Amino acid sequence: MTNAPDTLLAVDGLNVRTRHRTLVHDFSLHMQKGERIGLIGESGSGKSMTTTALLGLLPNGVTADGSIAFDGHEGNLLEASERELMKIRGRDMAMVFQEPLTALNPLMRAGDQVAEIMTQHGLVANKAEARRRAIEMLDAVKLPDPAEAARAYPHQLSGGQRQRVMLAMALANDPALLLCDEPTTALDVTVQRQVLDLILELVKQRGTGLLFITHDLAVVANMCTRVLVMNDGKIVEEGPTDEIFTRPQHPYTRGLLAASDLEATDADGRLFTVASARDYVPPTVDPAADAAVDRAAGAHAAGGSAASAHAAEPVMRVTDLVRTYTRGKTSLFKPATEVHALKGISFEVPRGGRLGVVGESGSGKSTLLRILAGLDQPTSGSAVVVGNEVAGAKEAQLRELRQQLQIVFQDPMGSLDPRMTVEQIISEPLLVRGRTEAAAKRSQMVAEMLEAVGLPASSASRYPHEFSGGQRQRISIARALICRPAVVVADEPVSALDVSVRAQVLNLLADLVDEYGLTLVFVSHDLNVVRHLCDSVIVMQSGEIVEAGDTETVYRHPQHPYTQRLIDSSLTLRQELLTSQ
């Protein structure tokens, strides 16, 4: 097949295989110069395998066949030698990875890493010129003090700054094609928005082709003009972004859209999932129609908050809570630095309430959680949880507190013991001193909890590695609820999950909170999730609460500039489709 003269990349009939199975089936993509294409799908759909095949970086034991033609290079890239591919990588085709800390060399300064990309391909006269150009590139990606940033090692930079260094490296040689693999997944919402705006600005300026891989549909609506939807290694739908997102033809695309749209709920007020998406109405590009959906969502959320907060006594009361850490001394002559993690915060949560805690990294959210769970002591102030004062509490008193308050962590794989069976994991909270259940009773309670979180009873004999991420998070929720606590604290419990699994877990949490009459404290940097799930919210910045109140009121009429900035930076599918018109 002959390609049009302005074709940048032509992939035809690409298959990626291991010895036992095919990971990518018959993938085809034709991209014009300067075009921006989104490749979307859930974990395991084949997105990352496709991009590593384009770069010739497939792992051992994985092979690719088909045809990849790239502008300016003769023949099929799949048949090119490693030497030829090394000339292309970083010069004509560059990649921005998901986790910059693992992609950057920890032993090299940031400026030297950007300069090395240029010297490797011989595109600068000498090292001094490369260093000068590296500082220019760090300036182009809007690092505050580029000369200072050039001298820093990766660990001395924040996550957003490291991602900017990666972007500077990727664009240093002005490549024709930029591949981005989930480049903002681990970033705070305002930093994510800045990095996305920056990528878009730079590729438009330079006329660079962009292939953007993500499971976040709002990001694709913001960044890309065309979209390809992948499921089980196959492209199931492709076309212009606004067309695919407002008139999806394939049931899987419709399911992804439904699960991504946290502003849409079914007749029972629950989030849509891929399975329940049949009745989902995709976002229109008619502002009046979407405003009606928005008003309905607001009324639904406001109704829920009024009912739950009515005349309920506080189950949690935090008063003037202060936590100050002292860092280790770095000099004989200077005093150790103090870190003010919490600066006198106060709030109450009524019984049965759902409180959202939002704020960026370093705002004090995790410190607050540790104190509420009795894992850390405040410097001063009071935290009373279900009648237990945390400040100055002895271990026996904290044991009582931990029966009443349980935590669901962000990363289930990190919080589940890989050597314990699911039954051992879930029943562990029942083994504390003072509880009297016999082994048979514990097994029965585990089976009931597995059923409550939507897992088969046969799961009890299996191990964590045998489950998907969403299933592992269900196991974490079952463990948290087995001793019937009064309060559940969820720390970013859905941030690592695919959109369809996220919708299922959020529905499950909401159902269980209602069923067991739980009080929920939900910590997240995803404002859309908090808006859906919580009836009240506190916004934290630098150890202080800068705004608090009823969720819908705070979202619709934010009083503090920081809250306004968080809301403005938050991407929603409907908003992005409206603004892209």
Low-confidence stretches: 295-310
Number of helices: 23
Total count of strands: 19
Structural class: alpha/beta
Give an account of the 3D structure.
With 581 residues, this protein is of the alpha/beta class. The protein has a domain at 314-324 and 336-580: Rossmann fold, CATH 3.40.50.300. It is 40% helix and 22% strand. A hairpin with a 2-residue loop joins β18 (536-541) and β19 (544-550). α8 packs across α22 and α18 packs parallel to α19 (499-516). It starts with 6 loop residues before the first strand and ends with a helix.
Salient structural properties:
alpha/beta; globular; 19 strands; 581 residues; six-stranded mixed sheet; ABC_transporter-like_CS; Rossmann fold; ATP-binding
